[in-house]
Amino acid sequence: xxxxxxxxxxxxxxxxxxxxxxxxxxxxxxxxxxxxxxxxxxxxxxxxxxxxxxxxxxxxxxxxxxxxxxxxxxxxxxxxxxxxxxxxxxxxxxxxxxxxxxxxxxx
Length: 107
Known about the structure:
With 107 residues, this protein is an all-alpha fold. It is built from 3 helices and no strands.
């Protein structure tokens, strides 16, 4: 349940909610741009893996990434959530690499 802020009179301030949502929208826009850049990099990784005949999945590398991003999170209370987000990002990156590989092999 979301906490609401009350002013001195105890009334809820909807402007704060709107401002917070606007901030989230701006952050989401930045995340989309960064994820698009990440998918570009994934494409390059996939090309290198195909050239070297390496599998899409590299558990050691994924563990390194998960540990690194979790340790960069300054809030210990959100470490588990940050890790889960990046697990999902990497799963989608693997799925995209598989798609690219299948698309390349069909041509």
